[in-house]
Amino acid sequence: MTLFAISILITIFLFTLLNSLRFKSALKTLLFRIRQQDPGWYERIDGDHFFSGPANDSKQLSLFNYIALNRFENHPDPIIVQKCRRLQTLFKRCMRCLALLFSYICLLLIYVGSH
To answer: Model pTM?
Structure first.
């Protein structure tokens, strides 16, 4: 039973890690497209320091709000719209994986504590 539980936990962890890496990759491609199409917007969201260096969180949150609130639907570039939709899907998938991982760990702790 323990080996089976650990293998499930590792599988969920790897699935969560994979989806997180896919999210980061999709975000990088969106930033690359934004830099090409709208350099002013790229500067406003601090695209140069998005993943490293002294990042400005409020500027980065503006991009996440743009995506979360579906403001991209009226964007003139269909590729940016497509990439934003993909990011929404991947973000939801990552959050579900993290919730599943957390729930499974809690269930395992409860099970171990009762035996």
So the answer is: 0.84
Q: Can you tell me which residue has the tokens 């890496």?
A: 21
Quick one: which of 52, 53, 50 has its CA closest to 87? 50
Q: How far apart are CA 67 and CA 73, in angstroms?
A: 9
- Report which residue type is found at 90: L
* Confidence tier at 52 by pLDDT (50, 70, 90): confident
Cα–Cα distance measured from residue 108 to residue 64, given in angstroms and rounded to the nearest whole number: 34
| Assigned token pair, 55 | 């990042």
| Residue 53 Rama label (left phi>0; alpha psi -120 to 50; beta) | left
Q: Residue 61's CB: how many other CB atoms inside 10 A?
A: 12
- Assigned token pair, 105: 């760990």
